[in-house]
Specification:
By secondary structure, the chain is α+β, with helices and mostly antiparallel strands. The chain contains eight helices and eight strands, in the order ααααβαββαββαββαβ. It has helices spanning 2-20, 34-40, 73-76, 102-111, 133-146, 173-185, 212-224, 251-259; strands at residues 124-131, 151-157, 162-167, 192-193, 204-209, 231-235, 241-249, 268-271. A four-stranded antiparallel β-sheet has the order 2-7-1-8. The protein is rod-shaped.
Length: 273
């Protein structure tokens, strides 16, 4: 057994010596000339020609994958197949070769310009009313506080004329009361003794009418009841109202006037006449 081990050991040593060339050229190098190969390989003297578009790209760093679309050759204005210059070589390009992007931004800046402001709405002239003399004073005060820029004025609107059926004034109050008692005996129910200090004091009113025809008709009825001294007279114009005229009122001021209707007996806001 020991002899077999020694034989195997010697065989391995012999194979190792042959492979290392201890007994001449190694088996793996037979048919080769390694010295000649080492003398022919001189990498420092080898020169490879640079051809644009073929092997010159090896010296240019590749563009990152996230480059924007305007880095393409078509966007830069360079011919197809030409290399895109890097930041280090861009200074070498002529100045006219770099496209100017400023004109492309001009339309966007023009489109962003704000539209001209609208002209303010014209001021209007309105009439507010109608008011009695007492309410007109209150309306003027309200306008002074809320519409100080508006110019104020007033327009009087006369009331409607009327007619009365009366018994002319009697000499005294006692005579008027006696005549009124006689009217009651004759069946007259609607009468009124005027006692205020006026030209008609101590007269007896038998009705007030808006038309003269209605007053004459009532006088004829009273004549049938035995009232022979009843007369139809015109009544002075009563019930006139006033309009508050405001010039230079904006739309918001007009809405404020309409909102103040609760201060009065539902006045009207209308354009000036």
């Amino acid at each position: 057994m020991r002899s077999l081990f020694v034989v195997l050991l010697l065989a391995n040593v012999a194979l190792f010596a042959l492979d290392r060339g201890w007994f001449g050229q190694p088996l793996s190098e037979r048919g080769r000339d390694p010295a000649r190969m080492r003398s022919e390989l001189r990498a420092d003297t080898i020169q490879v020609p640079r051809l644009p578009g073929i092997n010159a790209a090896d010296e240019t760093p590749s563009a990152p994958a996230a480059d924007p679309p305007d880095a393409a050759p078509e966007a830069t204005g360079l011919p197809a197949g030409a290399l895109i210059p890097t930041s280090a070589s861009a200074d070498a390009l002529p100045e006219q070769d770099v496209p100017d992007a400023a004109p492309a931004l001009a339309p966007a800046a023009t489109a962003a310009d704000p539209s001209p402001p609208r002209a303010p709405a014209p001021l209007a002239c309105v009439e507010w009313g109608t008011f009695s003399e007492a309410d007109l004073i209150i309306a003027r005060k309200w306008a002074n506080e809320h519409l100080p820029a508006a110019r104020q004025g007033a327009r009087r609107e006369p009331g409607k004329p009327g007619w009365m059926v009366i018994i002319p004034p009697l000499p005294s109050a006692s005579a008027a009361q006696a005549a009124a008692a006689q009217l009651g005996k004759n069946g007259v129910r609607d009468y009124f003794v005027i006692q205020e200090g006026s030209p008609l004091q101590h007269a007896i009113s038998l009705g007030v009418f808006s038309t003269e025809a209605a007053a004459k008709k009532q006088a004829a009825v009273l004549l049938g009841q035995g009232v022979r001294n009843a007369k139809v007279i015109s009544r002075s114009t009563q019930g006139g109202k006033s309009w508050l005229r405001l010039d230079g009122v904006a739309a918001a001021d007009r809405r404020a006037m309409e909102g103040a209707r609760g201060l009065f007996d539902r006045p009207t806001v209308r354009d000036c006449r």
